[in-house]
Amino acid sequence: LTLSITPVYLVEISNVRYRGVLGVIPPLFTQIGLLATYLAGIWLNWSNLALSGVALIIPNVVFIWAIPESPVYLASKGDFAGAEESLSRLGREEDPTQFYKQIQGETHHYSSPDLYQVSESSSTASESASSVTWRFYTHPAVWRPTLVCFAIMFFFQATGYNTIIAYTKLIFRESGVTMDEHVSTGITGGFILLSCMIALGLSKVLGRKVLLYISSGGVTVNLTILGIYYYYKGSGPMDGFSWLPLTCMLAFITSFMVGYGAVAWTVMAEILPSSARGNIYPFAVAFTWVCNFCFALSFGYIQKYLGSFSAFWTFAGLSLLGMVFISFCIPETKDKSSEDVAEFFCRGEASPQGSTMTSVSDLTNVI
C-alpha cells in the first residue's frame, strides 16, 4: 500500500518544480529506516526489533489523519471547492489557476471523439458502462503510458538489485574482507543511504530520464565487469583482483539508486493520466514484485547450472536493453506539466475537427 499510494500522492500534491526532490524523499527515508533496522539488529533480537517497528508506525498513522486529501482526486470527483481548500492547506494558494490549467491541458490531449459512443446493440446501462470502460482503458492516452510503467518496473527488477544485495555477504568474503555479517550488512545499508543522498542532489539538476539512463548504464557496466571476474575466477584464483567484486558491487548500488531506486516510482506516477493513475499504479507495483520473484528464483538456477558469470551477464544484457527502452519510449518529466507529458504519448492521435471531444478524465464519472 505504501509503494502504491505514496508516489501518486506526492505527484498530485506537489508543484511541478519540486516533484523530483520530493520523489526521492520516500526512498531516502526508506533507506534510513533499513539502516536503523540493520544496526538495531546487532543488539536486539527479532521480537524486540519488531516491537520497535510498531512503535514507529503508531505516530505515522496519527499523522496520516492530519494530511490533506489529494487536490487531483477531489477535482476528479467534482469537489472543486475541496480541491482549492486542499491546495491552500498545502501552501499552494497561488496555484489554483495553474492547477486547473494543467488538468484542462491533460484533458485536451487525452481526448477522443467517440469515447461516449455506444453501439446500438448496447441497450442496457450496464452494457453502456462496460463499453465506456473498455474505451477508457484502450485509449492510447491510457494504454501507452500503462505499458511504459510496466516496462519500467520490469527493467527495474531486471537489474537484479534485490538479488545481488542478498549476495552481499559472499562478495565481502570473496573480496578478502573478514567481518561480522551484521557489520557488513550495516556498511551496505550505509552505502545505499549515501547513494540515495547523492540521488537527492542530482534530482535537482538532472532530468528524470537522464538519471534513469545513467542508472541503466552504470548497472550494465558493473554487472558486466562482475561477470568477467567470475568467468576468469572459474579458471583459477585471482588474488590480485580480490578488491574488484566489492568495488563493482558498491558502484552497482550507487548506479541503481541514483536512477531506478530514486526516481522510477515518481516517473510512473507522472506519466499516467490523473484519471487512470489510482487504478493502474497499484497493478504496476504488484507487477514489479512478481518480476522480483521470477528473477530471484531464476538467479539460483542460472548460477547453479551456468555459473555466476552467466547470471550477472544476463542482468547486464537486460539492463542494456533497458537503456534502449529509456532512450526511445520514456518522456522527460522534469519540470513538465501533464499537458507536456500527454503530447508525448498522443503523438499521431489527431482528433477530427468539429467533433465533440470527450476526455479520458470525464469518463471516470461514467465508469
Outline the fold blueprint.
Blueprint: H1 2-13, H2 19-43, H3 46-64, H4 71-76, H5 80-89, H6 96-109, E1 111-112, H7 125-137, H8 140-158, H9 161-166, H10 168-174, H11 181-205, H12 208-233, H13 244-258, H14 260-271, H15 274-306, H16 308-329, H17 338-345, E2 358-359, H18 360-363
Antiparallel strand pairs: 1-2
Helix pairs in contact: 1-2, 1-14, 1-15, 2-11, 2-14, 6-17, 8-14, 8-15, 8-16, 11-13, 12-13, 12-14, 12-16, 13-14, 15-16
Write structural notes for this entry:
The chain starts with a helix and ends with a helix. It contains 18 helices and 2 strands. By secondary structure, it is mostly helical. Strands 1-2 form a two-stranded antiparallel ribbon. Helices cover 75% and strands 1% of the residues. It has helices spanning 2-13, 19-43, 46-64, 71-76, 80-89, 96-109, 125-137, 140-158, 161-166, 168-174, 181-205, 208-233, 244-258, 260-271, 274-306, 308-329, 338-345, 360-363, and strands at 111-112, 358-359. Residues 107-123 and 351-367 have low confidence and may be disordered. α2 crosses α14 (260-271), α6 (96-109) runs parallel beside α17 and α8 packs antiparallel against α16 (308-329).
Describe the largest sheet.
2 strands, antiparallel
Structural class: mainly alpha
* Large-scale geometry: globular
- Share of residues in strands: under 5%
How far from one another are the termini?
Answer: 23 Å
Following the backbone from N to C, one meets helices and strands in this order, namely HHHHHHEHHHHHHHHHHHEH
